[in-house]
Design goal:
Shape: globular
CATH architecture: 3-Layer(aba) Sandwich
CATH class: Alpha Beta
Largest sheet: 7 strands, parallel
Strand order of the largest sheet: 3-2-1-4-5-6-7
Number of domains: 1
Structural class: alpha/beta
Distance between the termini: 34 Å
Order of helices and strands: HEHEHEHEHEHHEHHHE
Helix content: 40-55%
Length: 271
Amino acid sequence: MLAPMATKDREKHGGMNVAPVAAPGDVILVTGGGRGIGAATARLAAQRGYAVAINYLANAEAAERVVLEIRSAGGTAIAIAADISREVEVRRLFESVDRELGRIAVLVNNAGIVDRQMRVDAMRESRVVRMFAVNVVGSFLCAREAILRMSPRHGGRGGAIVNVSSAAARLGSPGEYVDYAASKAAIDTLTLGLAKEVAAESIRVNAVRPGIIDTEIHADGGDPERVRHISAALPLGRAGRAHEVAHAILWLASPESSYCSGTILDVAGAR
């Protein structure tokens, strides 16, 4: 479990908080960690002292590139392929982390998909089913496996789960991807309910809700120029960057946010 920062460290810095650092041996699993927000989170976690497990679905090259960057800087990282929408693969993913790094202290439920922009009346059943299988069922399955390792009921020492939601959950994404927005609204509810369910077991559950972030996900939605088109109209006049979300995720995972659970933190630039 993540250890609180020592009092003498706080005093040394005049009572100010310093960057949170993982306790020795702390393991973090970042799903969808090969690119975008996930990759930024994995890199920052390694800088903070975590041993990092990066999950990916198909892009082994991207995931291994992040692993190489971390190892080249003296960190510990592994990459594991798994489709988080499939229970058998989620179990295998966590068993691999157990075997290679040890029990996780932090789960970042980041893996998710978006699809081509379209209205609801044009969506096929297969699209909606796949959206919820990955974005919702996958997050539930990963949270379950994390709790089985973190909870004192199962021999654990507590831990932290950070879910990656989206500002779409409160905006609805009309005319683009209402299915994606609805799946992220489910993540918000998962965060609130699970936080209360496991609070007495030293497990904190929080979420970040990114706004428009400059990552590859916009190309997945069929509009690779989306960020450029809308940046000027955003309240801060620009899109967010993956590392800005990563800092929020690592803060929620750290002892710095020790009284935060059930918190949904908007990282959306006032949008």
